[in-house]
Amino acid sequence: MAKQRQEDGKKGVVDLMPLFAKELLAGGVAGGFAKTVVAPLERVKILFQTRRTEFQSTGLIGSAVRIAKTEGLLGFYRGNGASVARIIPYAAIHYMSYEEYRRWIIQTFPHVWKGPTLDLVAGSLSGGTAVLFTYPLDLTRTKLAYQIVSPKKLNASGMVNNEQVYRGILDCLAKTYKEGGIRGLYRGVAPTLVGIFPYAGLKFYFYEEMKRHVPEEYNKSIMAKLTCGSVAGLLGQTITYPLEVVRRQMQVQKLLPSDNAELKGTLKSVVFIAQKQGWKQLFSGLSINYIKVVPSVAIGFTVYDSMKSYLRVPSRDEAAVEN
């Protein structure tokens, strides 16, 4: 009896939650869990993208060994606190706004084709929305991950060899704002938006399109969802990856030597990097990203769908009709 009452109480709490809150919770859990799993690969990838030559010359395994020797196990998670602090609200807003945009489009245009194109549009809009709300935390994550320094070498002013070192998320946000104001907190947001619109849209497009071709008896299979999610992430990321490299380099521009040419404008920066650093630099770290994207997107989508089932979220079309 006590167990039954406990289950009834839990059911009541879940049933009282509004639909958008369930989607926020499901998205936040999915994002935080997936991001933590792939944090070590994310750290190495950022070091590749931002051209720290001592890492690019050693490859993936050599870079991992170098981080382990110089910074220890926690070095693989440098910047992950900022990453998780960003990804939880980002993923929550991303997934929730995707569902909301999708319902809004269906309600506003009742005869719209409820196929992959709808997922592409709703996914693109939701990606841009999530970026605008959480970009300063993404910038902070990149700056913290870019640092390579032993805590023992920090002096009292937080400097090492005249290079600014950030002591944590709040310290980095405060110093970035002091240096450049609001514009400083959103440095690199243009290529992020240019990249996220197609990436977020294509990610949902490929995932939902692949799920439509899964036989009905496998619809609830974890392996089917993982496969659909991994392929969706791979295809979406490959198409938009050069824009991510531009974004990372713009984010750490202030940390580079003063004689480095300043990157201005998304398309101009793509051309500049291709000319000065070689076109291969636009895909630097992509192989690592493939290794990272497979589990990250796959786990994200799978946990999100599982959380929606646990929270008894109705199907998208049913929710659209109810609203």
UniProtKB/TrEMBL annotation:
For this entry, the protein name equals Mitochondrial carrier protein
Q: Record's superkingdom?
A: Eukaryota
Q: Does the keyword rRNA processing apply?
A: no
Protein topology in the membrane: Multi-pass membrane protein
Report the gene name.
LOC100783383
From which organism does this entry originate? Glycine max
- Which GO biological process categories is it annotated with? mitochondrial coenzyme A transmembrane transport
GO CC annotations?
A: mitochondrial inner membrane
InterPro entries with a match to the protein in the record: GDC-like, MCP, MCP_dom_sf, MCP_transmembrane
